[in-house]
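Explain this fold:

***
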Amino acid sequence: MLTACVREQPNIIIITATFPPNIAQAPTQPLIVASTATNIPQSTPILSPVPQQPLSNPTPNATPPPLDIPSTHIVQSGDTLSGIAVTYGVSVDAILAVNELLNPNVLSVGQSINLPDVPQQYTPNFKIIPDSRLVRAPNSRNFDVAQFIANQTGYITQATDEVTIRIANGAGFPRQETATQIVERVAIEYSVDARILLAMLEFRAGWLSNPNPREDLLIRPLVSEATAPNSEGLYKQLSWLANELNRGYYAYKYRGLSTITLADETRLLINPELNPATIAVQYVLGLDGTPQQTWLLESQIGGLYAIYASYFGDPFIDAVEPLVPNNLQQPQLQLPFEAGVEWRYTGGPHGGWGNGSAWASLDFAPSEQALNGSLCFTANTWLTAVAPGVIARSGEGTVVLDLDGDGDESTGWSIHYLHIADDGIVQEGIRLNTGDRIGRPSCAGGFSTATHVHIGRRFNGEWLPADCQACLPNYQVSPFVLGNWTTIGIEGQYYQGFLFNGTTQIQAEQGRQTTINIISG
């Protein structure tokens, strides 16, 4: 049986409804007055004066999009209460409180689930960072992580952690890496700018300035066991942070997230004056039990912004805006395999890296099977370049094809291939034409339960949804098209969907026991 990347329950379900007319307008004033240095939590070290006002005029307000916040959710196949809760920015307990469910673990398709009342307050309208300082965007690679960490006096200069590298047969081997290597790794894997990761390490645990943090902050500098089980160590902690930053960012832009729920069950409407990166930071600051008043202070000028500005300066200087133009059109791309060779479409739209990113990627598996029956093997079938470009990154199961040819995967269009075997993999810096061989699918890189390729697209470092049905009006992009095949997802259903070529349809499905997922180059 063919499988794909790790499959999880959907995190976001999109529902279209009418926004209540009594709260359709954003407030003209922020929720609270900007805080000062005395408002910053005592555990947060400040190395330079806290700005009393923003250092520059940040991202202009966009035209507020219409917000759709229903009072009920109609259960679809694959729904779970936890997934529904994430969709609407509420907790499972809040949903249980307004429903009489005999068994909350069993939902029926078509069942109506009441949702908590729509909130009446908005999040603060203070902009923390531009989008191009959350996404690993143009100019991100010019920031020297190694030099920055070497100049610090805190624990980060001596921190190390174990990272598991997965090879073609799915086996993993541990490798000790320095904090510099881990920060760079997480930034590249999740396509999140390294500076926001470092600022959060300082803000939550003082790792940049304090050589002797509390013992518990050495193991879990960012998030507790209760919120993120089995996430001890710097690599897993930063991976959690990057994934959740992505979740807030992409769920707002591309999957309709409209509220944030805090630890005390306070639910706030996302302020339409904000940019997606600020919304993502607000979302993360509200996780892991942060009380409402603390969250309000952390979300304004004396909070995380002050730490970021003290280390990295004004985040809005040289911001790339807009990071992704509205109605961006994809260049022509071909199917990622050779002509006449049969493959299987095994995974519809799902996360580019981690389940928090945009549903940017698709899965294809070769029809061949290993002679020994193993699910993880290096296939004899070759993957190919979908367009001309230069290889910006190669190794550890990953190949990144840079279509603008400058070798920087954070500028312009790039195509991300995952689970590529080292044997025969194309080398970094090589220029390819459409159809040139890239490598062979396996279980290398990331985490995979069977041989396949995971392929997605980015623009200026941002993961782009393969199907933009749920995207806000200001953030529309063209669908993922490979050859003459157009991707159509199933609204709210992770890994599900179709490829259409005129009247011909192929359905995403695991396994070789069906013909509905067969596709040829």
Observations:
- Residues 399 and 417 are 5 Å apart (CA to CA).
- The chain has ten helices and 21 strands.
- The chain has a mean pLDDT of 87.
